[in-house]
Amino acid sequence: MRSLGSVLLALVMLFLLGPFVVIVIAGLSSGETLAFPPPGLSLRWVAKVFEVESFRAAFGVSMLLGVGATLVALVLGVPAAYALDRYKVPGGEAVRSIVTAPIIVPGIIVGLALLRFLLVPLGLPVMLGLFLGHTALLIPYAVRIVSASLNNLRVDIEEAAILLGASRAGAFFRIVLPNIRSGIVAAFILGFVTSFNQVPVSLFLSGPGVTTLPIEMLSYMEFNYDPSVAALSALLALLSLAVVVVAERLLGLSRYV
Amino acid sequence: MSDPRFLSLEALTLAYGGSVAVDKLDLAVRRGELIALLGPSGCGKTTTMRAIAGLMEPAGGRIVLDGRDITRVPANKREIGLVFQSYALFPHMSVYDNVAFGLRLRRVEAGELDRRARAAIASVGLTGFEARVPKALSGGQQQRVALARSIVVEPRLLLLDEPLSNLDARLRLEMRSELRRLQRELGITMIYVTHDQAEALALADRIVVMRAGRIEQMGAPEEIYERPASGFVARFMGFENTFGLEGGRLTGSAGAVAYASAVPAGTRALAWRPQGIALGQGAYQGRVLGASYLGQTVEYLLDTSLGPIKAETPAAQTRYANGDTVPFDLPLATAAPLAQP
Lengths: 257, 341
Ligand SMILES: Nc1ncnc2c1ncn2[C@@H]1O[C@H](COP(=O)(O)OP(=O)(O)O)[C@@H](O)[C@H]1O
Ligand SMILES: [Mg+2]
Known about the structure:
The complex is a heterodimer.
Chain A: H1 2-27, H2 44-51, H3 53-86, H4 92-100, H5 107-122, H6 126-151, H7 156-163, H8 168-179, H9 181-197, H10 200-205, H11 213-223, H12 228-251
Chain B: E1 7-16, E2 19-29, E3 34-38, H1 45-53, E4 60-65, E5 68-69, E6 80-83, H2 95-105, H3 110-123, H4 139-151, E7 157-161, H5 169-186, E8 190-194, H6 197-203, E9 206-211, E10 214-219, H7 221-226, H8 231-236, E11 241-246, E12 249-251, E13 256-258, E14 269-272, E15 278-293, E16 297-304, E17 307-314, E18 325-329, E19 336-338
Parallel strand pairs in B: 3-8, 3-9, 6-7, 7-8
Antiparallel strand pairs in B: 1-2, 1-4, 4-5, 9-10, 11-12, 11-14, 12-13, 14-19, 15-16, 15-18, 16-17
Helix pairs in contact in B: 2-3, 2-4, 3-4
The structure holds adenosine-5'-diphosphate and magnesium ion.
Magnesium ion binds near residues 45 and 46 of chain B.
């Protein structure tokens, strides 16, 4: 029984980590084309990544979108989650379902809808379109995750603060926010990563000269089959890891877990 | 100290949606008094506390505090403290910050803030625990923090909602006397909610017995304990044997018996505590259904022509076995005459 468990565990780990390992090794190739196993190891394709102008520009767009859209989604999503949780508004459940619906609606539909009925008719700039698309995509995550931490927070501690003289807003900022901090950080990280890896919505909303990194990688691969895309993927995976580690260190996630 | 209407509730009606939880409640509390609000679970005690604190808007009636109508004053402006049954401590703050919270909101100057916070922490015996977070405290210690946090801002009125119900029996006794000491020292007016009659008797200057959103009886502890006005209060105070009385006959669940003693006018029922029923002699007979040894005493359950009767006798006295037929008496001297059954 025990050895069967170990084998299963090893299989799962292989399944999860295998592609990552393959990509890292392929990105360190010394060869001219994407291949596994590579003919030899070198850092030439890693260096190449930083030289490709379109990668640099797309990386900037993706970073800006990831941070900006997540922040805006939180600024809108936290109060929404709070209102849904605390005020038993009539139809609150319906509102909650609608707000969290895009999680189950395929991104490709969201992208198409935004393009066809918002961006084109209004003639919005590409960057603004991407920003709106990503924000719309991330609000459900923000609402869901923040709702979960609000659910674990007793209502009576807010009431205690109010009876000690705090205003409603004061109780929210001094009592509620500090206690849902870990939820907000989690929502931020998940939102950022989701936005950064997002393809379907961005595919529709990208335009001439303004595109996100995953889309740029796709189009790069249409014309080039060198290992730089693998090298870039490995770098992005490291970046995600760094975000989580830094967030953990700076904000002390585990203090609340 | 003797302002008889420091707090008054006037025809206070409280409802959740359409269902009325508290119905036209009238109550006057003196300055410096400790009132116990006593009643079974669900009778509206918490609801009443929340309305007084301003956490719930009344459906009708008025709340007047110190001569001022506060019915529409928001909760954060009422200066009424509430100690929650769950303590409701701020989990992300230390004991010190929990206690200092209200003082900081009042922008108390730093030196005075520190002095007052430390004094409050000391008054509940928690000096040395200032840096702990609530999670790292026992239930009794959390209870003390909640108390210190409420009294440090010197509220005009302090409400306590079953504050001891989550503590074990020994700690409950200890906190009970400490509460009483603090209340005397600070001279603070308190309303103390409980469903435990012993707690109410031990603590309160006056007891208000509630039943289904209304006041059933109100009076000094001795008065409530010895002269309950209704069957409901009587049962709450341990008069477990209650029988209707009409035309010289006592009526129980199983039948009626003749009762010769002359009762006060207007008596419609008589109630006895198990200790008030005399076993071993008397005009009535019962068969022993069960006996529980309680240490000092033995409690018997008797099957009688009135229905089941609970009687308690000193353990040193004659003991009876299941099935024994035992004569007993229902002495008027130990009975509570009730105006309503
Ligand atoms: N939030 C609520 N919504 C609806 N009904 C409630 C709510 N809180 C309490 N009640 C009802 O009001 C009545 C009084 O409740 P409560 O004041 O909590 O009683 P107690 O504190 O004496 O146990 C009960 O019948 C209870 O079911
Ligand atoms: Mg209650």
